[in-house]
Amino acid sequence: MGDGVLDQYIRKYIILKLKSKPHRLHQEAKRFVSAKSQAQTLEKLIEHEWFTDEEMDIIKRGRNAKSYTKAKNTDIQTYRKSSGLEAIIGFLYLDQRHERLESLLERIVQYVEERR
């Protein structure tokens, strides 16, 4: 669920910001939704103590969950961190914590743009 929510948010952000063609949209979206980018963003959010204790528990469960798919183009640690970020996004979405979710998604965009 979290990966879908993040992907939709990022694509909307890019379309409204860049008003670009589909290929450029895809290239820009990869900067935000790749496992490497998600892992780096999660590390920064944790470093800044952005998450509550409850949210950290969700992240840890998502990060440590057995995965039946192989990580593509990345190592297992990076893949697990990105899974943790997707888990908290999915949790906030499903629990209808819209303000907190919006705040998290905005912060993700901010951090990725800063790395540019």
From TrEMBL:
Protein name: Mini-ribonuclease 3
Keyword terms, alphabetized: Cytoplasm, Endonuclease, Hydrolase, Magnesium, Nuclease, Ribosome biogenesis, RNA-binding, rRNA processing, rRNA-binding
Domain RNase III: 1-96
HAMAP family named in the record: RNase_Mini_III (MF_01468)
Chief location category: cytoplasm
Enzyme class: hydrolase
EC number of this enzyme: 3.1.26.-
Subunit structure as annotated in this protein's UniProt entry: Homodimer.
Organism of provenance: Staphylococcus canis
Cited InterPro entries: Mini3_fam, RNase_III_dom, RNase_III_sf
Family to which the UniProt record says this protein belongs: Belongs to the MrnC RNase family.
